Amino acid sequence: MIIRPPFYSPLQIVGGKLWDCSFTQGAALGYYIMPFQGEDQPPLYSPLLRRGEGRGAEMERDFLHTTLGNTGLQVHRVGLSTTYRPGKKVVYKALDAGVNYFFAFGIDTQVIKVLREVIRQDRDKYVIATGAYNLLIGHPNLRRSLEKRLHQFRTDYIDIFMYLGVTKGKQLTDDILEQFARFKEEGKIRATGMSTHDRKFAGKMCAEGKLDTVMMRYNAAHRGAEQDIFPYLEAHHPGVISFTATRWRYLMRQPKGYPKEGRIPTAGECYRFVLSNPHVHVCMMAPMNIKQFESNLQEIQKGPLNEEDLEFMRKFGDIVHYKKHYFMGGT
Hints:
Elements: E1 11-14, E2 17-24, E3 32-35, E4 65-67, E5 74-76, E6 78-81, H1 88-96, E7 101-103, H2 109-118, E8 127-133, H3 142-153, E9 158-166, H4 174-185, E10 189-196, H5 199-208, E11 213-217, H6 225-228, E12 239-243, H7 267-275, E13 282-285, H8 290-300, H9 307-323
Parallel strand pairs: 6-7, 6-13, 7-8, 8-9, 9-10, 10-11, 11-12, 12-13
Antiparallel strand pairs: 1-2, 2-3, 4-5
Helix pairs in contact: 7-8
């Protein structure tokens, strides 16, 4: 019997024994378990150590699967977006590979058409994330956006409904949060969230527990979330979804002045860098075609980067960052 404590609790019960553990950045998995009480010691990383209270059968916290923070949603850590219209075959391929987290705008008809057929059975197996976009002028009608997505997916509820494109804290008003709360009470959504490039505001919202999830940029060139967001997750354990793992492919290009024979990251390494950070629950992928998807996923399945590769990614990311310093909010 496994008794699961709260997310990142230092107290773990494995095999009937109580272990006092700390989670620390590590070489192999991005974190490791360091026991400092008890005569016997559990493995360096035990698949029996779970985090979160998920729906349905318990899921091991391995490299590719986790519980999405306090939502309890069991997710594959690779999320799929079809923004670049890679074809419905990519969606089916992702489903075959076990991917179950999908993000869609209202115009993303490829993933919408596939999912509304698939979710007729075993709806709880799939996590659908969408939302209403923050308008530069005026305010969106949240209920109308939600009802439209429900109709498009032909479902009774949306798993994660977000306020998208928040650029300033004042844009996420109390009225919006109140509407989100009503949608949850009505059973039309299971979790709330926002996407933003304002990391400090995201960290504030995480610390205050006002949203169930946050979607933000995190990659080797933009690691500011490590200071502005990740330290504020512990109190309420929101789900963390990242995007732009390749920094719009800049991390896969040779920077100006870089040695011609120098190592260049692959897309898979970019995704593995993000997923090697245990604070990130889901890393979004938006492939352009099925070849990209298959290649990326094959490399992701190699698991976390080792410390040498992580350090390479950080150094290369710094080069890319300072060559292209201002991009959607700088750091």
